[in-house]
Prior knowledge:
- By secondary structure, the chain is an alpha/beta fold.
- The chain is 25% helix and 21% strand.
- It is built from 9 helices and 16 strands.
- Strand 1, helix 1 and strand 2 form a beta-alpha-beta unit.
- Helix 6 (215-221) runs parallel beside helix 8 (252-264).
- It is globular, with a radius of gyration of 19 Å.
Amino acid sequence: MRPxxxxxxxxxxLVAPSLGCTISxxxxxxxxxINNFNKMKYKLLLGxxxxxxxxxxxSNTPKLRGKELMDAYRSEAKAIMSVGGGETMIEILDxxxxxxxxxxxxxxxxxxxxxxxxxxxxxxxxxxxIYGIHFPTLHTRPxxxxxxxxxxxxxxxxxxxxxxxxxxxxxxxxxxxxxxKEINPLAPRCLNKRTKLVCYNYSxxxxxxxxxxxxxxxxxxxxxxxxxxxxxALKHSEEGLIxxxxxxxxxxxxxxxxxxxxxxAGWFNNVKMFIIGRSYHLNDESFGVGIKETYxxxxxxxxxxxxxxxxxxxLGPTLPIRSNAHARVSIENNNIKFEYKN
Length: 342
């Protein structure tokens, strides 16, 4: 189910289902992004928790974070954007009304820990969501790259998304914890690494249902009462699945263990393609085994294309992907293109 696209003067709700923006550079970037949007043709609905850190490594308690999200779904907002990722979003799932969400779909935008909602939105609610930037990424103007593409996707302006403008990406996070604290919190991202796709077993475009997210989180969902991945694969067996996956903190051997777990749980039944994004440890070679080598070794048994170092994930820019949408994915001249069918 695709939510309605945004129109001028529609409302966007901001929520903090994981971390809130309380420290530099996140606080300054959220404030600047809000200021940017106050000059545009949209209204903002600010959640109670977006500037808080009252929970355990979280903006607030699981119950209050869940309430904030459900309040956004019950509000006039046509889209909901997360202000950040984090570590403990999975704890709010017991406080969400998935029946209500299914009957009242809205665009939800986020990535990383926000996989906790984006994946169940597909597998439980049959709703589309956008795996893409967090709202504070919109702190610089004019908008470009992933900023512009996310807004265009919310407005339904493009039926396809190509990565031609994503010639370079970050070599490391713009705001590394090891960086000097006097760094300008509103500095633009340093895109200094040339993007180069790695294609394994690819020969022609693939069509299927897009599903996926952050492996660190998918591992935590696997086996819980919110795990409907195997049923989802069966439901969409005729059209097949295109899995988009990326990781945050996992290194190559950890990725290997997670992929084994998901394979054993039947998550990849009826898969037609894997698209692997960029993690913080993109070039990790734990025990002499590279992370790209790990993906290929663990997934080659499915005999489907595997596209690695795709331009999304934890090293920006990260182009938006419409989770639960039917799409045609093609590769040409080091560009990847998603053509959406609705």
